[in-house]
Design brief:
Layout (H helix, E strand, L loop, with lengths): L2 E6 L8 H25 L6 H34 L6 E6 L2 E4 L4 E4 L5 E5 L2 E5 L8 E4 L5 H4 L2 H11 L4 E4 L10
Parallel strand pairs: 5-8
Antiparallel strand pairs: 1-2, 2-3, 3-4, 5-6, 6-7
Helix pairs in contact: 1-2
């Protein structure tokens, strides 16, 4: 199958080291603020046993939160160091469409409907519903290879039955 276009996956965005450090600084600043508030609320307590119980409860809570922050911090560092994985997602040729993620290859005659609604490509096959798929075009490198309008024209050129395209108009936020 001679491929006219092959869409690749877009690597997942990684947090930068500055964002990670700002996250940790914000969380520990939040810890400090909570500690100051608790000290203000409980500074009038004179019962020594109650103070020890509250201190232990607060200490355990802070240790749990500290564990969660460090665990998430290490997750972000690991995510930052991981190499991006780019793989083919979809190819379009004269013969048909090949959806690599689920190993679905279809010729143009077997496809009953193609829709692009808000940058989501939806392909339907009536005779074999297991071959149906949806693909978000924003998770591919389509916009680096061609515009979405060119991609739509390419689909219309190969798929003679018609491609349904709908893009939701952007809202001004006024609720109208």
């Amino acid at each position: 199958m001679k491929t006219e276009i092959t869409l690749q996956s877009v690597p997942e965005e990684k947090p930068g080291f500055i964002a990670i450090i700002l996250y940790v600084a914000f969380v520990y600043g939040l810890f400090w603020g909570i500690n100051q508030c608790l000290m203000y609320f409980f500074h009038d307590i004179t019962n020594e046993l109650l103070i020890k119980v509250l201190n232990n409860i607060i200490w355990i809570g802070f240790m749990f939160l500290h564990y969660k922050v460090v665990k998430y911090f290490l997750h972000l560092i690991h995510k930052q160091r991981k190499r991006p994985v780019i793989y083919p997602v979809l190819s379009i040729s004269i013969e048909g469409i090949n959806y690599y993620i689920e190993s679905k290859e279809m010729d143009w005659g077997s496809i009953s409907e193609i829709q692009i609604i808000d940058s989501v490509l939806s392909v339907t096959v009536d005779l074999n519903p297991k071959k149906d798929f949806k693909l978000s075009l924003s998770k591919t490198d389509l916009h680096t290879q061609m515009t979405q309008e060119s991609f739509e024209k390419l689909l219309k050129y190969h798929y003679k039955k018609g491609v349904y395209i709908y893009n939701t108009p952007s809202s001004c936020g006024c609720g109208c």
